[in-house]
Q: What sequence folds into this?
Protein backbone atom coordinates (compact mmCIF):
# COMPACT_ATOMS: atom_id res chain seq x y z
CA UNK A 1 0.00 0.00 0.00
CA UNK A 2 1.54 3.28 -1.05
CA UNK A 3 1.25 6.32 1.19
CA UNK A 4 -0.41 9.47 -0.06
CA UNK A 5 1.72 12.50 0.69
CA UNK A 6 -0.04 14.86 3.04
CA UNK A 7 -2.70 12.38 4.20
CA UNK A 8 -0.70 9.78 6.11
CA UNK A 9 -3.03 7.13 4.75
CA UNK A 10 -2.91 4.64 1.94
CA UNK A 11 -5.42 5.23 -0.82
CA UNK A 12 -6.85 1.80 0.04
CA UNK A 13 -8.21 3.30 3.24
CA UNK A 14 -10.58 5.24 0.98
CA UNK A 15 -11.92 1.89 -0.15
CA UNK A 16 -12.36 0.86 3.47
CA UNK A 17 -14.33 4.05 4.05
CA UNK A 18 -16.59 3.37 1.09
CA UNK A 19 -17.05 -0.24 2.18
CA UNK A 20 -18.01 0.76 5.73
CA UNK A 21 -20.46 3.35 4.46
CA UNK A 22 -22.12 1.00 1.99
CA UNK A 23 -22.41 -1.93 4.40
CA UNK A 24 -24.61 0.23 6.61
CA UNK A 25 -26.60 1.62 3.68
CA UNK A 26 -27.06 -1.85 2.18
CA UNK A 27 -29.51 -2.88 4.87
CA UNK A 28 -32.11 -1.36 2.55
CA UNK A 29 -32.01 -4.78 0.84
CA UNK A 30 -32.66 -6.42 4.21
CA UNK A 31 -36.06 -4.74 4.55
CA UNK A 32 -37.81 -8.10 4.17
CA UNK A 33 -36.49 -9.10 7.61
CA UNK A 34 -38.71 -6.48 9.24
CA UNK A 35 -41.81 -7.12 7.15
CA UNK A 36 -43.24 -10.14 9.00
CA UNK A 37 -42.68 -8.71 12.53
CA UNK A 38 -44.29 -5.42 11.52
CA UNK A 39 -47.28 -7.16 9.95
CA UNK A 40 -47.69 -9.36 13.03
CA UNK A 41 -47.45 -6.46 15.46
CA UNK A 42 -49.67 -3.98 13.63
CA UNK A 43 -51.84 -6.19 11.41
CA UNK A 44 -50.67 -4.48 8.21
CA UNK A 45 -50.97 -6.10 4.79
CA UNK A 46 -48.10 -6.96 2.45
CA UNK A 47 -49.11 -4.22 0.01
CA UNK A 48 -48.76 -1.70 2.85
CA UNK A 49 -45.32 -2.81 3.98
CA UNK A 50 -44.10 -3.18 0.39
CA UNK A 51 -44.85 0.50 -0.16
CA UNK A 52 -42.23 1.38 2.47
CA UNK A 53 -39.51 -0.16 0.30
CA UNK A 54 -40.91 1.45 -2.85
CA UNK A 55 -40.81 4.92 -1.29
CA UNK A 56 -37.25 4.36 -0.09
CA UNK A 57 -36.15 3.32 -3.60
CA UNK A 58 -37.76 6.36 -5.24
CA UNK A 59 -36.33 8.83 -2.71
CA UNK A 60 -32.93 7.11 -2.93
CA UNK A 61 -32.74 7.41 -6.72
CA UNK A 62 -33.99 11.01 -6.88
CA UNK A 63 -31.85 12.33 -4.04
CA UNK A 64 -28.79 10.68 -5.59
CA UNK A 65 -28.83 13.26 -8.40
CA UNK A 66 -28.86 16.20 -5.98
CA UNK A 67 -26.27 14.56 -3.72
CA UNK A 68 -24.03 13.85 -6.69
CA UNK A 69 -24.15 17.50 -7.73
CA UNK A 70 -23.33 18.65 -4.20
CA UNK A 71 -20.53 16.09 -3.95
CA UNK A 72 -18.96 17.38 -7.15
CA UNK A 73 -19.17 20.98 -5.89
CA UNK A 74 -18.30 20.69 -2.19
CA UNK A 75 -16.47 17.39 -1.92
CA UNK A 76 -17.48 14.04 -0.44
CA UNK A 77 -17.39 14.82 3.31
CA UNK A 78 -20.60 16.90 3.68
CA UNK A 79 -22.66 14.47 1.62
CA UNK A 80 -21.30 11.36 3.28
CA UNK A 81 -21.83 12.81 6.77
CA UNK A 82 -25.39 13.81 5.87
CA UNK A 83 -26.06 10.37 4.41
CA UNK A 84 -24.76 8.57 7.48
CA UNK A 85 -26.71 10.74 9.91
CA UNK A 86 -29.95 10.42 7.94
CA UNK A 87 -29.87 6.65 7.45
CA UNK A 88 -28.96 6.09 11.12
CA UNK A 89 -31.64 8.52 12.29
CA UNK A 90 -34.21 6.85 10.04
CA UNK A 91 -33.52 3.45 11.59
CA UNK A 92 -33.58 4.83 15.13
CA UNK A 93 -36.88 6.65 14.60
CA UNK A 94 -38.44 3.48 13.18
CA UNK A 95 -38.31 2.10 16.73
CA UNK A 96 -41.17 4.44 17.63
CA UNK A 97 -43.40 3.30 14.76
CA UNK A 98 -47.13 3.30 15.45
CA UNK A 99 -48.52 4.02 11.98
CA UNK A 100 -47.74 3.33 8.35
CA UNK A 101 -47.40 7.01 7.52
CA UNK A 102 -44.77 7.36 10.23
CA UNK A 103 -42.90 4.34 8.82
CA UNK A 104 -43.15 5.80 5.30
CA UNK A 105 -41.49 8.96 6.62
CA UNK A 106 -38.75 7.33 8.72
CA UNK A 107 -37.66 4.38 6.62
CA UNK A 108 -38.93 5.53 3.23
CA UNK A 109 -38.12 9.25 3.15
CA UNK A 110 -35.40 9.77 5.79
CA UNK A 111 -33.76 6.40 5.12
CA UNK A 112 -34.07 6.91 1.36
CA UNK A 113 -32.42 10.33 1.61
CA UNK A 114 -29.64 8.81 3.71
CA UNK A 115 -29.02 6.19 1.05
CA UNK A 116 -28.99 8.78 -1.72
CA UNK A 117 -26.51 11.10 0.00
CA UNK A 118 -24.35 8.30 1.40
CA UNK A 119 -24.16 6.23 -1.79
CA UNK A 120 -23.36 9.28 -3.94
CA UNK A 121 -19.85 9.68 -2.53
CA UNK A 122 -17.85 6.40 -2.69
CA UNK A 123 -18.05 5.89 -6.47
CA UNK A 124 -16.64 9.32 -7.50
CA UNK A 125 -14.01 9.14 -4.74
CA UNK A 126 -12.82 5.69 -5.83
CA UNK A 127 -12.83 6.74 -9.49
CA UNK A 128 -10.42 9.60 -8.70
CA UNK A 129 -8.08 7.65 -6.42
CA UNK A 130 -7.89 4.58 -8.66
CA UNK A 131 -7.53 5.47 -12.36
CA UNK A 132 -5.42 2.30 -12.66
CA UNK A 133 -7.78 -0.12 -10.85
CA UNK A 134 -11.05 1.72 -11.00
CA UNK A 135 -13.26 -1.35 -11.46
CA UNK A 136 -11.79 -3.22 -8.51
CA UNK A 137 -11.86 -0.24 -6.15
CA UNK A 138 -15.43 0.76 -6.97
CA UNK A 139 -16.48 -2.90 -6.92
CA UNK A 140 -15.15 -3.39 -3.38
CA UNK A 141 -16.68 -0.16 -2.13
CA UNK A 142 -20.15 -0.81 -3.54
CA UNK A 143 -19.81 -4.52 -2.75
CA UNK A 144 -20.43 -3.49 0.83
CA UNK A 145 -23.96 -2.54 -0.18
CA UNK A 146 -24.64 -6.10 -1.22
CA UNK A 147 -22.83 -7.56 1.80
CA UNK A 148 -24.64 -5.38 4.35
CA UNK A 149 -27.89 -7.31 4.10
CA UNK A 150 -26.00 -10.62 4.34
CA UNK A 151 -24.56 -9.55 7.70
CA UNK A 152 -27.22 -7.41 9.34
CA UNK A 153 -30.22 -9.27 7.91
CA UNK A 154 -29.47 -12.56 9.70
CA UNK A 155 -28.24 -10.66 12.77
CA UNK A 156 -31.58 -8.88 13.06
CA UNK A 157 -33.73 -11.88 12.14
CA UNK A 158 -32.00 -14.60 14.15
CA UNK A 159 -30.57 -12.70 17.12
CA UNK A 160 -31.77 -9.16 17.73
CA UNK A 161 -35.51 -9.36 17.03
CA UNK A 162 -36.08 -12.66 18.92
CA UNK A 163 -34.12 -11.49 21.98
CA UNK A 164 -34.75 -7.75 22.13
CA UNK A 165 -37.86 -7.11 20.07
CA UNK A 166 -38.45 -5.03 16.97
CA UNK A 167 -38.19 -1.55 18.51
CA UNK A 168 -34.92 -2.17 20.29
CA UNK A 169 -33.51 -3.83 17.16
CA UNK A 170 -34.11 -0.65 15.17
CA UNK A 171 -32.32 1.35 17.87
CA UNK A 172 -29.34 -1.02 18.04
CA UNK A 173 -28.93 -1.02 14.27
CA UNK A 174 -29.29 2.76 14.13
CA UNK A 175 -26.42 3.12 16.62
CA UNK A 176 -24.23 0.61 14.75
CA UNK A 177 -24.89 2.31 11.42
CA UNK A 178 -24.05 5.72 12.88
CA UNK A 179 -20.62 4.53 13.98
CA UNK A 180 -19.95 2.78 10.66
CA UNK A 181 -21.04 5.66 8.47
CA UNK A 182 -19.22 8.32 10.48
CA UNK A 183 -15.99 6.31 10.30
CA UNK A 184 -16.52 5.77 6.58
CA UNK A 185 -17.34 9.43 5.92
CA UNK A 186 -14.13 10.63 7.58
CA UNK A 187 -12.09 8.40 5.26
CA UNK A 188 -13.77 9.57 2.06
CA UNK A 189 -11.63 12.38 0.65
CA UNK A 190 -10.75 13.40 -2.88
CA UNK A 191 -7.09 13.10 -3.94
CA UNK A 192 -4.97 16.16 -4.74
CA UNK A 193 -5.60 17.72 -8.15
CA UNK A 194 -3.75 15.87 -10.89
CA UNK A 195 -3.14 12.85 -8.68
CA UNK A 196 -1.68 9.71 -10.27
CA UNK A 197 -0.72 6.53 -8.40
CA UNK A 198 3.01 6.10 -7.84
CA UNK A 199 4.63 4.09 -10.61
CA UNK A 200 1.57 4.31 -12.86
CA UNK A 201 2.25 5.56 -16.37
CA UNK A 202 -0.88 5.52 -18.51
CA UNK A 203 -0.60 5.16 -22.26
CA UNK A 204 -1.12 8.27 -24.40
CA UNK A 205 -4.65 7.23 -25.32
CA UNK A 206 -5.49 6.64 -21.68
CA UNK A 207 -4.02 10.00 -20.69
CA UNK A 208 -6.25 11.69 -23.25
CA UNK A 209 -9.24 9.77 -21.94
CA UNK A 210 -8.53 11.00 -18.40
CA UNK A 211 -9.00 14.58 -19.61
CA UNK A 212 -12.52 13.92 -20.89
CA UNK A 213 -14.98 15.59 -18.55
CA UNK A 214 -18.52 15.90 -19.86
CA UNK A 215 -20.99 18.20 -18.17
CA UNK A 216 -24.41 16.67 -17.44
CA UNK A 217 -25.86 18.50 -20.45
CA UNK A 218 -23.13 17.20 -22.73
CA UNK A 219 -23.60 13.68 -21.40
CA UNK A 220 -27.32 13.87 -22.13
CA UNK A 221 -26.55 14.73 -25.73
CA UNK A 222 -24.69 11.46 -26.29
CA UNK A 223 -26.45 8.44 -27.77
CA UNK A 224 -24.47 6.24 -25.39
CA UNK A 225 -26.22 7.67 -22.34
CA UNK A 226 -29.67 6.58 -23.51
CA UNK A 227 -28.53 3.11 -24.48
CA UNK A 228 -26.78 2.69 -21.13
CA UNK A 229 -29.74 4.12 -19.21
CA UNK A 230 -32.24 1.81 -20.91
CA UNK A 231 -29.95 -1.21 -20.47
CA UNK A 232 -29.46 -0.32 -16.80
CA UNK A 233 -33.19 0.16 -16.18
CA UNK A 234 -34.32 -3.04 -17.90
CA UNK A 235 -31.44 -5.17 -16.64
CA UNK A 236 -32.09 -4.12 -13.04
CA UNK A 237 -35.85 -4.48 -13.53
CA UNK A 238 -35.22 -8.13 -14.34
CA UNK A 239 -33.08 -8.57 -11.24
CA UNK A 240 -35.44 -6.69 -8.92
CA UNK A 241 -38.42 -8.62 -10.25
CA UNK A 242 -36.74 -11.78 -9.02
CA UNK A 243 -35.61 -10.23 -5.73
CA UNK A 244 -39.14 -9.00 -4.97
CA UNK A 245 -40.79 -12.33 -5.85
CA UNK A 246 -38.10 -14.78 -4.74
CA UNK A 247 -39.48 -15.72 -1.31
CA UNK A 248 -43.08 -16.35 -2.44
CA UNK A 249 -41.79 -18.17 -5.53
CA UNK A 250 -39.60 -20.45 -3.41
CA UNK A 251 -42.48 -21.08 -1.01
CA UNK A 252 -44.73 -22.05 -3.91
CA UNK A 253 -42.04 -24.50 -5.06
CA UNK A 254 -42.07 -26.16 -1.63
CA UNK A 255 -38.78 -24.79 -0.25
CA UNK A 256 -38.56 -25.11 3.55
CA UNK A 257 -38.63 -21.97 5.69
CA UNK A 258 -35.07 -22.53 6.95
CA UNK A 259 -33.77 -22.77 3.41
CA UNK A 260 -35.59 -19.57 2.47
CA UNK A 261 -33.64 -17.50 4.99
CA UNK A 262 -30.35 -18.93 3.79
CA UNK A 263 -31.24 -18.37 0.17
CA UNK A 264 -32.36 -14.76 0.44
CA UNK A 265 -30.07 -13.42 3.14
CA UNK A 266 -26.89 -15.37 2.44
CA UNK A 267 -26.82 -16.88 -1.05
CA UNK A 268 -28.48 -13.89 -2.71
CA UNK A 269 -26.47 -11.30 -0.82
CA UNK A 270 -23.23 -13.20 -1.46
CA UNK A 271 -24.01 -13.29 -5.18
CA UNK A 272 -24.85 -9.58 -5.17
CA UNK A 273 -21.61 -8.64 -3.38
CA UNK A 274 -19.50 -11.01 -5.50
CA UNK A 275 -20.93 -9.59 -8.70
CA UNK A 276 -20.08 -6.06 -7.65
CA UNK A 277 -16.51 -6.85 -6.60
CA UNK A 278 -15.37 -9.52 -9.04
CA UNK A 279 -17.14 -8.10 -12.08
CA UNK A 280 -15.59 -4.73 -11.26
CA UNK A 281 -12.16 -6.38 -11.16
CA UNK A 282 -12.88 -8.20 -14.42
CA UNK A 283 -13.91 -4.94 -16.09
CA UNK A 284 -10.41 -3.54 -15.47
CA UNK A 285 -9.05 -6.29 -17.68
CA UNK A 286 -11.82 -7.08 -20.14
CA UNK A 287 -13.48 -3.68 -20.51
CA UNK A 288 -16.63 -2.27 -18.87
CA UNK A 289 -19.03 -2.83 -21.74
CA UNK A 290 -17.72 -6.34 -22.42
CA UNK A 291 -18.35 -7.43 -18.83
CA UNK A 292 -21.83 -5.89 -18.82
CA UNK A 293 -22.67 -7.69 -22.06
CA UNK A 294 -21.49 -11.05 -20.77
CA UNK A 295 -23.24 -10.82 -17.40
CA UNK A 296 -26.54 -9.54 -18.77
CA UNK A 297 -26.37 -12.28 -21.42
CA UNK A 298 -25.89 -14.88 -18.68
CA UNK A 299 -28.87 -13.39 -16.83
CA UNK A 300 -31.07 -13.96 -19.88
CA UNK A 301 -30.40 -17.70 -19.48
CA UNK A 302 -30.29 -17.85 -15.69
CA UNK A 303 -33.81 -16.48 -15.17
CA UNK A 304 -35.63 -19.33 -16.95
CA UNK A 305 -33.19 -21.72 -15.25
CA UNK A 306 -34.36 -20.34 -11.91
CA UNK A 307 -37.93 -21.36 -12.72
CA UNK A 308 -36.81 -24.75 -14.02
CA UNK A 309 -34.92 -25.44 -10.77
CA UNK A 310 -38.20 -25.63 -8.90
CA UNK A 311 -37.85 -27.33 -5.52
CA UNK A 312 -34.31 -28.61 -6.15
CA UNK A 313 -32.53 -26.64 -3.44
CA UNK A 314 -29.00 -27.02 -4.87
CA UNK A 315 -30.04 -25.90 -8.35
CA UNK A 316 -32.20 -23.12 -6.96
CA UNK A 317 -29.35 -21.79 -4.82
CA UNK A 318 -27.05 -21.85 -7.84
CA UNK A 319 -29.53 -20.01 -10.05
CA UNK A 320 -30.24 -17.43 -7.32
CA UNK A 321 -26.51 -16.81 -6.84
CA UNK A 322 -26.01 -16.27 -10.59
CA UNK A 323 -29.01 -13.94 -10.95
CA UNK A 324 -27.90 -11.85 -7.98
CA UNK A 325 -24.33 -11.82 -9.35
CA UNK A 326 -25.56 -10.44 -12.68
CA UNK A 327 -27.67 -7.87 -10.85
CA UNK A 328 -24.74 -6.78 -8.66
CA UNK A 329 -22.54 -6.45 -11.74
CA UNK A 330 -24.76 -3.71 -13.10
CA UNK A 331 -24.56 -1.70 -9.87
CA UNK A 332 -20.76 -1.59 -9.91
CA UNK A 333 -19.75 -1.70 -13.57
CA UNK A 334 -22.23 0.99 -14.64
CA UNK A 335 -20.70 3.28 -12.02
CA UNK A 336 -17.20 2.59 -13.34
CA UNK A 337 -18.33 3.01 -16.94
CA UNK A 338 -19.89 6.40 -16.14
CA UNK A 339 -16.53 7.67 -14.84
CA UNK A 340 -14.69 6.22 -17.85
CA UNK A 341 -17.16 7.50 -20.44
CA UNK A 342 -17.96 10.98 -19.13
CA UNK A 343 -15.03 11.79 -16.83
CA UNK A 344 -14.47 12.10 -13.08
CA UNK A 345 -14.93 15.85 -12.64
CA UNK A 346 -18.74 15.59 -12.73
CA UNK A 347 -18.91 11.91 -11.87
CA UNK A 348 -21.27 12.45 -8.94
CA UNK A 349 -24.07 14.15 -10.82
CA UNK A 350 -23.48 12.29 -14.10
CA UNK A 351 -23.74 8.90 -12.43
CA UNK A 352 -26.63 10.20 -10.36
CA UNK A 353 -28.57 10.90 -13.56
CA UNK A 354 -27.70 7.47 -14.94
CA UNK A 355 -28.67 5.93 -11.59
CA UNK A 356 -32.27 7.11 -12.01
CA UNK A 357 -32.54 4.01 -14.18
CA UNK A 358 -32.23 1.92 -11.01
CA UNK A 359 -35.03 3.94 -9.40
CA UNK A 360 -37.30 3.20 -12.35
CA UNK A 361 -36.32 -0.47 -12.13
CA UNK A 362 -37.24 -0.51 -8.44
CA UNK A 363 -40.81 0.36 -9.40
CA UNK A 364 -41.08 -1.45 -12.75
CA UNK A 365 -39.59 -4.85 -11.87
CA UNK A 366 -41.59 -5.67 -8.72
CA UNK A 367 -44.77 -4.23 -10.25
CA UNK A 368 -44.56 -6.36 -13.40
CA UNK A 369 -43.82 -9.46 -11.33
CA UNK A 370 -46.80 -8.87 -9.06
CA UNK A 371 -49.22 -8.17 -11.92
CA UNK A 372 -48.17 -11.27 -13.85
CA UNK A 373 -48.53 -13.49 -10.78
CA UNK A 374 -52.00 -12.09 -10.05
CA UNK A 375 -53.05 -12.82 -13.61
CA UNK A 376 -51.57 -16.30 -14.09
CA UNK A 377 -51.24 -17.47 -10.46
CA UNK A 378 -47.74 -18.82 -11.06
CA UNK A 379 -44.25 -17.41 -11.50
CA UNK A 380 -43.45 -18.79 -14.94
CA UNK A 381 -44.70 -15.71 -16.79
CA UNK A 382 -42.87 -13.37 -14.38
CA UNK A 383 -39.50 -15.10 -14.72
CA UNK A 384 -39.73 -15.46 -18.47
CA UNK A 385 -40.75 -11.80 -18.72
CA UNK A 386 -37.71 -10.89 -16.62
CA UNK A 387 -35.59 -12.84 -19.09
CA UNK A 388 -37.13 -10.85 -21.95
CA UNK A 389 -36.31 -7.56 -20.19
CA UNK A 390 -32.73 -8.75 -19.72
CA UNK A 391 -32.56 -9.63 -23.41
CA UNK A 392 -33.58 -6.09 -24.40
CA UNK A 393 -31.02 -4.73 -21.92
CA UNK A 394 -28.39 -6.93 -23.57
CA UNK A 395 -29.22 -5.48 -27.00
CA UNK A 396 -28.95 -1.92 -25.63
CA UNK A 397 -25.56 -2.54 -24.04
CA UNK A 398 -24.41 -4.38 -27.17
CA UNK A 399 -25.14 -1.23 -29.18
CA UNK A 400 -23.46 1.16 -26.70
CA UNK A 401 -20.06 2.61 -27.51
CA UNK A 402 -17.70 4.87 -25.59
CA UNK A 403 -18.79 8.43 -26.48
CA UNK A 404 -16.46 10.50 -28.62
CA UNK A 405 -14.99 13.50 -26.84
CA UNK A 406 -13.96 14.95 -30.19
CA UNK A 407 -17.56 14.81 -31.38
CA UNK A 408 -18.65 16.55 -28.19
CA UNK A 409 -16.17 19.35 -28.83
CA UNK A 410 -17.44 19.64 -32.39
CA UNK A 411 -21.04 19.94 -31.13
CA UNK A 412 -20.01 22.83 -28.87
CA UNK A 413 -18.74 24.79 -31.86
A:
Amino acid sequence: MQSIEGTGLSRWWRVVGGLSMNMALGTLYGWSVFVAPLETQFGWKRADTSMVFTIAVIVFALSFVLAGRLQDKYGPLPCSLAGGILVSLGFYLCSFTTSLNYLFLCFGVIGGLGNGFGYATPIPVMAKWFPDRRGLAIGIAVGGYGAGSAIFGPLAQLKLIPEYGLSTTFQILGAIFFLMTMAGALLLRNPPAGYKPAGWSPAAAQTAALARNFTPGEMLRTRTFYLMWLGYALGCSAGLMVISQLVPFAKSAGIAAASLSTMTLVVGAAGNASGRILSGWMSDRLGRINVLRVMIGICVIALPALYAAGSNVALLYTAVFVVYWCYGTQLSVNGVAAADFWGTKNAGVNYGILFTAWGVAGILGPRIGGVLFDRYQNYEAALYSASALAAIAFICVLAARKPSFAARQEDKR
